[in-house]
Design goal:
Layout (H helix, E strand, L loop, with lengths): L2 E6 L4 H10 L8 E7 L4 E7 L2 H11 L6 E7 L14 E3 L2 E6 L5 H10 L9 H12 L4 H11 L4 E7 L6 E6 L4 E4 L4 E4 L11 E4 L5 E4 L4 E4 L5 E2 L4 E2 L15 H7 L1 H12 E2 L2 E2 L8 H6 L2 E6 L1 H18 L3 E5 H4 L10 E7 L5 H12 L3 E6 L5 H5 L2 E4 L12 H21 L4 H11 L2 H9 L2 H11 L4 E6 L2 H17 L2 E6 L16 E6 L5 H12 L4 E7 L11 E5 L8 H18 L18
Parallel strand pairs: 18-19, 18-20, 20-21, 21-22, 23-24, 23-25, 25-26, 26-27
Antiparallel strand pairs: 1-4, 1-10, 2-3, 2-4, 5-6, 6-7, 7-8, 8-12, 9-10, 9-11, 11-15, 12-13, 13-14, 16-17
Helix pairs in contact: 3-4, 4-5, 7-13, 7-15, 9-13, 9-17, 13-14, 15-19, 16-19, 17-19
The structure holds 2-deoxy-2-amino glucitol-6-phosphate.
Length: 606
């Protein structure tokens, strides 16, 4: 996903832009650029590759020091990663950076070519820059409004007009953009980590809003051109929170943060031993009557939904369907006002999940968003919101966000059980007491990384690796497998333990690595039987189970014991060694742990 930073004030703009863009690297990118504006002109410097390439280009081109400008990291969608295709894109009067997709860019390009414009890049963004230039006759707001009215698609924009030195223009439709407030300086950015070094005060641009920003004034207009007053938010995250905090990688830091962020999330939704839903949470009267629940998300968020599904089934006895967002939105789902659609998203900006949410609302369903980013698009589009409190998750591979998503799902399941009468107060109080043991038990697991590091060293050269489990452990297997694949590039599959013998067991041969999750008391023996089936065919087996469980020596090559906890909450413990296993496999294989190839932190394109 692209990253945008804009600045106007008294500092060296190039430095502010580079600092800000470096805090957005986690979004994934393949080129970068800046436009620096002084009283006379706009200096544009761009480079393919990492920010260090841009830094070198700036050193070489040595533009004059400016105090107003825009910067961009590009994750290619239209046109290959290249210096030409990188942003900012320019026209005679305009320089512009963009995050999103202009769906009708081809028609607009043809129109502009007929008006005499020529194009050097393959991008939709260059078309937008020249469209704004075409509509510019001395009034930037008019030029932007007329251009954006012709555009179909999504955008977050930072724009400079040559005739207006010191002024920054910003606009937003679907792609997130915030305005940061400073002392004699103001900012725009795609996400708050880019600004934390300078300010914690910001506002989130809403759909269709436009902002005109100088060093001492911010004016925001709605899509009708009317001035609007916006709520100022104060980021709870300091710069350190967005840095690595002494860990080698963001991912390891975020794995270790799970204990504290689960604690924070429990604190937000527990009162006097009972679950509460928060001031933006779902209506309790509605939850008493709800008959069907759909949980929708992508990747790890969808896997968290699978844990939530089993938790709600077990405790509240309400039918729950889990759907992949990109499937849900094209399956013409059967929904009504009696359906609750829960969307889960760490970033709150995943386009497929946002589209699924909007589809659910259009069909009359009530919607609840479980998101980690304050004021994100998904949070603002849903009827109700339950925020998770993971803090900024920078590593592309989601870890702590998964744990707090599970935490909220468990609390919601307990609340539903109370409201629907399937569990009494005393039962829920007992279960919340169990849930409150999780942070200390996760911390315990985090002190035992060497054991997992050793296991990773034994399997680091595997080409295929299987995960398997039953019930909660099956849902967890999917997440463990995804973690391994996305950061170590080892092929992996997750299987319902009872299903392997219906075909896939034919792939098991001497030395095939199998990670078996056996933390669920009710199906422990069954799972061990499945382990025996693969072991007898030569598999090299790791079993994860509760302390006290007996795993016969001939069944497993390695056994990882986990602290004892109610089976229903074991996923919050089992996930820790699975994340560490994937992390160390990635490190040992020399992969880019925090920015794995081909991936972006938040997928805001189809
Ligand atoms: C998780 O490790 C992946 N990076 C990815 O599957 C992610 O969970 C998915 O893209 C959903 O992102 P979201 O939670 O921000 O919506």
């Amino acid at each position: 996903m692209c990253g945008i930073v804009g600045y106007t004030g008294y500092r060296n703009c190039a430095e502010v832009l580079l600092n800000g863009l470096s805090k957005l690297e986690y979004r994934g990118y393949d080129s970068a650029g800046v436009a620096l504006m002084d009283a006379e002109t706009i200096h544009v410097v761009k480079a393919k590759g990492r920010l260090s390439e841009l830094q070198a280009a700036l050193k070489q081109e040595n533009p004059p020091e400016c105090s107003c400008g825009i910067g961009h990291t590009r994750w290619a969608t239209h046109g290959v990663p290249s210096q030409i295709n990188s942003h900012p894109h320019c026209a005679p009067q305009v320089s512009l950076v963009h995050n999103g997709i202009i769906e009708n860019y081809a028609q607009l390009k043809e129109f502009l070519q007929q008006k005499g414009y020529s194009f050097e890049s393959e991008t939709d963004t260059e078309v937008l820059a020249k469209l704004v230039d075409y509509h510019y006759h001395g009034n930037p707001m008019e030029a932007l409004s007329q251009s954006l009215a012709q555009v179909r698609g999504s955008y977050a924009l930072g724009v400079l007009f040559r005739d207006f030195p010191g002024k920054l223009y910003a606009a937003r439709r679907e792609s997130p953009l915030i305005v940061g407030y400073g002392e004699n300086e103001n900012f725009i950015a795609s996400d708050i980590p880019a600004l934390l070094q300078y300010t914690k005060e910001y506002t989130v641009l809403d759909e269709g809003e436009l902002a005109v920003i100088t060093s001492d004034q911010v004016q925001i207009y709605n899509s009708f051109g009317e001035p609007v007053t916006k709520e100022h938010l104060i980021a709870q995250w300091d710069v350190a929170a967005a840095e690595k905090g002494g860990f080698e990688h963001f991912m390891l830091k975020e794995i270790h943060e799970q204990s504290s962020v689960v604690q924070a999330t429990l604190g937000a939704y527990l009162h006097d031993g009972l679950p509460v839903l928060g001031e933006q949470g779902p209506d309790e009267e509605y939850l008493k009557r709800v008959k069907r629940i759909h949980i929708v998300g992508c990747g790890t968020a969808m896997h968290a939904g699978m844990i939530g599904q089993t938790a709600i089934h077990r405790m509240a006895r309400i039918p729950v369907q889990v759907e992949i967002a990109s499937e849900f939105r094209y399956n013409d789902p059967i929904l009504s006002a009696d359906d609750l659609v829960i969307v889960i998203s760490q970033s709150g900006e995943t386009l497929d999940t946002l589209a699924a949410l909007k589809l659910a609302k259009s069909k009359g369903a009530k919607t609840l968003a479980i998101v980690n980013v304050l004021g994100s698009s998904i949070a603002r589009a849903a009827d109700w919101v339950m925020y998770t409190y993971a803090g900024p998750e920078i590593a592309v591979a989601s870890t702590k966000a998964y744990s707090v998503q599970l935490t909220v799902m468990y609390l919601l399941a307990l609340k539903l059980a109370l409201l629907q009468g399937t569990l009494c107060d005393a039962e829920v109080r007992y279960l919340t007491q169990q849930l409150q043991r999780v942070p200390e038990l996760q911390q315990l697991l985090l002190t035992d990384c060497d054991r997992i590091k050793y296991l990773a060293s034994q399997f680091m050269n595997s080409s295929d690796l299987f995960f398997m489990g039953r019930g909660f452990d099956y849902a967890l297997s999917l997440e463990g497998s995804l973690k391994l694949k996305e950061i170590s590039y080892i092929h992996s599959e997750a299987y319902a333990a009872g299903e392997l013998k219906h075909g896939t067991i034919s792939l098991i041969e001497e030395g095939t690595p199998v990670v078996a999750l056996a933390t669920q008391d009710a199906v422990f023996e069954k799972t061990i039987s499945n382990v025996k089936e693969v072991r007898s065919r030569g598999a090299h087996v790791i079993v994860l189970c509760k302390t006290g469980a007996v795993v016969p020596a001939e069944v497993a090559d390695h056994v990882v014991k986990l602290p004892h906890l109610e089976s229903i909450f074991m996923p919050l413990l089992t996930i820790v060694p699975l994340q560490l296993f994937a992390y160390y496999m990635s490190v040992l294989r020399g992969c880019d742990v925090d920015c794995p190839r081909n991936l972006a932190k938040s997928v805001t394109v189809e």
